[in-house]
Amino acid sequence: MEYIGIFIAGLFFSFGFSAPFAVGFFLTIQPQNIWLATIIGGSGALIADLIIFKMIKFSFMDEFEKLERTKVMKEIIKDFSYKPLAKIKNYLLYAIVGIVISSPLPDEIGVSMLAGLTSIRIHILAIISFIMNSIGIYIMLSI
């Protein structure tokens, strides 16, 4: 029964308003197998992040396209279009998103950055989300 709670807490870990409850749950529970609990919690967080990604892609793509057509964004895109800067931008974006996803901060921020600023494939998002959420959950379970 405690692993079902860990899965549900993993779901809550991704959403901004429920993340504090998930953190409190992870800090108070003492699972018998911390690695299994990490995988189960990471799976719950992965499902929540995929739901967030689908909702953002479905709901906000028009706004992202309008934003790309503004004069300010065209200038920013032009500045980052040079090869070395484009690679640095991608590495920085993925690093920032990884930190946001692995922390108790709302995953909506990181997932929306990936959905709007990159053309990320869903399986790449799933890998990043699972690994980073699992790291964050493991840290909380081991405290």
Describe the SSE topology.
Blueprint: H1 2-13, H2 19-28, H3 34-68, H4 71-79, H5 83-102, H6 107-117, H7 122-142
Features:
single chain; 143 residues; 7 helices
The number of distinct β-strands equals 0
**What order do the SSEs take from the amino end to the carboxyl end, as H and E?**
HHHHHHH
CA gyration radius, whole angstroms: 17 Å
Approximate strand percentage: under 5%
The overall average pLDDT, rounded, is 88
Q: How many domains, as an integer? A: 1
Shape category = elongated
Q: Total number of helical segments?
A: 7
Query: What's the oligomerization state?
Result: single chain
The helicity comes to over 70%
Which structural category do the helix and sheet elements fall into? mainly alpha
Major beta sheet, specifics? Answer: none
Distance between the termini: 21 Å
Low-confidence stretches: none
